[in-house]
Design a protein that fits this description.
Elements: E1 2-6, E2 16-21, E3 29-34, E4 39-43, E5 50-52, H1 72-84, E6 89-92, E7 95-99, H2 111-119, H3 130-143, E8 150-155, H4 162-176, H5 189-208, E9 209-210, E10 218-219, E11 222-229, E12 235-243, H6 261-269, H7 272-277, H8 295-305, H9 309-318, H10 323-339, E13 344-345, E14 354-355, H11 357-371, H12 375-383, E15 384-391, E16 394-401, H13 404-434, E17 441-447, H14 459-490, H15 503-510, H16 515-525, H17 531-541, E18 547-549, E19 558-563, E20 566-571, H18 575-580, H19 585-592, H20 597-615, H21 618-623, H22 626-642, E21 645-652, H23 665-674, H24 677-686, E22 690-693, H25 694-701, H26 717-729, E23 744-746, E24 750-753
Parallel strand pairs: 7-21, 8-17, 8-21
Antiparallel strand pairs: 1-2, 1-5, 2-3, 3-4, 6-7, 9-10, 11-12, 11-17, 13-14, 15-16, 18-19, 19-20, 22-24, 23-24
């Protein structure tokens, strides 16, 4: 008998090895012969050590639910064979599993392939492809009898291919949902809309993506793109909602990381005249070295950004950002780089700090010129902090000198707030020029950061992984849990499957007494941060098996959260300050007073926000921490997703090295387990994901049967559906006692069908 044996070797990339049972079991062990001839005695009392091995034709079976037997080893072997033969997509019930090939596969995403999937009468009959998911969402939007709005959730860890798949979805939907241009205009007006929608992608990637140890093009923000349709199902616009830009990356990058792509494009690919205008070269013509772009990472930046700047500029022009807009934007970016070169010094440790004029005089001159700032005003804002003291009905304001460290923090704070407001302005501009004034329905594309775990994890990784927990919870609620509960409610014969519910972990992070609530409490108290005391307080207050101490030997105060995708240890250092995200009002006032109309304009909303917070009570002000704002925006996203018909693409990274034609089955297995794909396959294989109410079923299919056979004056709606169900599927239908070979069951209020039958 052929079997799979769990591979427990620490150095192996294989999760399972092919083997055969070599004889009868003795003393609780069964002899197993591996493919290399080695014989092992395997304890049969251990679960999931031996799995039955089938004889599947892996290249022909493109739906994992059709594998026989259905187990983890067979799923992995199927994905391996398909991946190494350039079949990177496989069905997993309602989910599409897409492996990142890390190479171009000729002909896979061409226009002819788009037309092929669009012209198929039923996209379920086609081979698994990201275009098939797009077509299913588009068809559901066109022919839906109730809520037409759709969402496509693209998930997976960093480097798994989420951004690329989102691009392909946009390309497909904008291609098949366009007007036919009956007026014969050249170019067609809607073609301009399509171009603007597609060109928003490279702009957002340039300003919002950066390199991490796992992925050279990692999205450092989340985005939900709504493609807007009229009543004729033609795309007429798009809007973009963004989440939590990692602005800290502007001023600091860990080892192996890079800054946002746009900075390297600016440095590496702008013309000599542009470099001179933006102060990127010295008076002698040499390139300026910038502290925000470490020299050791510049080579990586050159490799990935060389000759991309022209494409970014072309895309900006396409969406309506003219030459003046672009010049303003690149001046601001250059000004940020020069701000980063400002260094401060003091003669004695307790003395007020001042700018190191000898080393940084040129950088100060360039920063003030490019950003339109008053030199003295900028220096005062960076080296003195404003303190307001209240005395009964009076207030006293005085300026306190900053230390060298404090001045550096204020410099970085100014750089981060400028970049964040520039990014927000860009998104608002894109929405203004691509969003329709009125629309009937939408298809939402969610591309949000993948699960992350690095050597050092801080607030950014905590929020990113929290977002992934919420998305996993949405998937579990929508499909895994609701499917089982609905079968029971409808009286469908069903064998329940076990699945991992991450609700307890979500509660540990966001509940009433949780990691987030304790962080907000620390911000409200507004006291000097004590790393050790916060770690102790957190672990004592939040009693959860999902929260624990950092592993032994961890060098800094930290805590560990057991996420659905694995354990992650978060450093306490800097966590509370990042959560507060303090932006001194005097810094914003200096920026808002800029002689550059563009900078003054983009800083206006920030000044209004801070003034509004200062006018409210301390309790109201402190409630708007970074985690509070992120939690609110994520909650709105979940509401939107819940109100739509969702479709899922699970992106899988085949190996850690991002190399083509390399399949690390142990690494892939960990991702499949983490995102619930194996549970999805099991439930989909036995379940009925397509369902219609009796009324919808009758309305859709009654024309197929003569009315005389189903007299509506005599029979109730449910009785008509029962008879209709027998006629269509040819079953005796002993009220769901049959296993339903053709895959249909009649519930109390709904008809349940196999995938692709509705």
């Amino acid at each position: 008998m052929r079997v799979w044996l769990a591979d427990t070797g620490t150095d192996s990339q294989e999760a399972w090895q092919g083997a055969a049972v070599a004889g009868p079991a003795k003393n609780g062990k069964v002899p197993v012969c591996l493919e290399n001839g080695e014989v092992r005695d395997v304890p049969i009392i251990k679960e999931d050590v031996l799995l039955l091995r089938g004889s599947n034709n892996y290249l022909e079976v493109d739906d994992l639910t059709q594998l026989s037997p259905l187990n983890e080893a067979e799923v992995l072997e199927s994905l391996r064979h398909r991946f190494l033969n350039s079949h990177v997509c496989s069905k997993a019930g309602i989910t599409l599993v897409s492996l990142n090939p890390f190479k171009e596969i000729p002909g896979l995403y061409e226009d002819e392939v788009i037309q092929s999937y669009h012209q198929q009468s039923n996209s379920q009959n086609g081979s698994p492809h990201v275009f098939a998911i797009a077509e299913k969402a588009f068809s559901s939007l066109r022919y839906a009898l109730d809520c037409p709005n759709q969402s496509i959730v693209v998930s997976g860890e960093s480097g798994a291919g989420k951004t690329w798949n989102t691009r392909c979805l946009m390309k497909y939907l904008t291609s098949v949902a366009l007007y036919k241009n009956p007026g014969g205009f050249s170019p067609p007006p809607v073609k301009c809309i399509e171009r603007r929608i597609l060109d928003s992608n490279p702009i957002l990637e340039a300003f919002g993506n950066a390199g991490t140890p796992r992925n050279h093009n990692s999205s450092r923000f989340g985005k939900y793109i709504q493609l807007q349709f009229d009543r004729g199902s033609h795309v007429i616009g798009a809007s973009i909602q963004t989440y939590l830009l990692e602005k800290t990356r502007v001023v600091h990058q860990a080892t192996g990381e890079t800054n946002f792509h746009i900075f390297y494009q600016l440095i590496n690919d702008s013309t000599s005249d542009q470099k001179s205008d933006w102060g990127l070269t010295t008076p002698t013509g040499d390139d300026v070295t910038f502290a925000y772009l470490p020299v050791e990472e510049m080579e990586h930046g050159v490799t990935n950004e060389n000759q991309v700047f022209g494409k970014t500029q072309s895309a900006m022009k396409s969406v309506g950002l003219n030459h003046l807009h672009q010049d303003n934007i690149f001046q601001v970016l250059s000004g940020i780089l020069h701000l980063g070169n400002l260094e401060f010094t003091c003669e004695e440790e307790c003395d007020p700090c001042e700018l190191n004029e000898e080393e940084c005089g040129h950088a100060l001159e360039q920063a003030c010129h490019l950003l339109g700032l008053d030199r003295d005003g900028l220096l005062t804002a960076l080296t003195f902090r404003r303190i307001t003291a209240s005395h009964s009905k009076r207030q006293s304001v005085f300026m306190k000198p900053c230390s060298v460290e404090e001045a550096g923090v204020r410099r970085d704070c100014m750089s981060k707030v400028i970049y964040a407001r520039l990014f927000d302005w860009l998104v608002a501009f894109l929405n203004k020029h691509t969003s329709a004034n009125q629309w009937h329905s939408f298809i939402g594309l969610l591309d949000i950061y993948g699960f992350e775990s690095f050597q050092s994890n801080s607030l950014e990784q905590l929020c990113i992984n929290y977002a992934n927990e919420k998305l996993q919870q949405h998937f579990v609620t929508h499909f895994l849990r609701s499917a089982q509960e609905e079968y029971e409610k409808e009286g469908i014969s069903w064998t329940f499957c076990n699945f991992s519910d991450n609700q307890p972990c979500v509660e540990t992070i966001e509940g009433k007494l949780s990691v987030f609530s304790l962080m907000n409490e620390e911000c409200r108290l507004n006291r000097q941060s004590d790393m050790t005391s916060f770690e102790t307080k957190l672990l004592a207050a939040v009693e959860s098996p999902y929260l624990s101490k950092a592993p032994l030997g961890h060098p800094h105060p930290a805590f560990t959260i057991r996420h659905y995708a694995g354990n992650v240890t978060y450093n306490v250092y800097g966590l509370i300050e990042k959560t507060k995200d303090p932006i001194p009002l005097e810094l914003v006032e200096v920026l808002q007073a800029s002689t550059s109309p563009f900078l003054s304009k983009i800083m206006g909303p920030e000044l209004a926000r801070i003034q509004d917070l200062q006018n409210k009570s301390n309790k109201s002000s402190m409630s708007k921490t970074v985690v509070s704002r992120f939690k609110e925006s994520l909650s709105e996203l979940m509401k939107t997703l819940t109100a739509t018909s969702p479709h899922y693409i699970r992106c899988i990274k085949p190996n850690r090295q991002c190399q083509p034609d390399s399949f690390d089955s142990r690494f892939v297995a960990s991702q499949l387990r983490a995102c619930g794909v194996l549970e999805t396959v099991a439930i989909s294989a036995a379940g009925f994901p397509a369902k219609l109410t009796h009324a919808s079923f009758w309305e859709r299919y009654r024309m197929l049967v003569p009315h005389c056979d189903l007299d509506s004056t005599i029979l109730s709606l449910r009785e008509r559906c029962r008879l209709f169900h027998r006629i269509l599927f040819g079953e005796e239908n002993k009220e769901n006692e049959s296993d339903g070979v053709r895959g249909a069951h009649l519930g109390k209020t709904k008809i349940f069908l196999r995938e692709g039958q509705a």
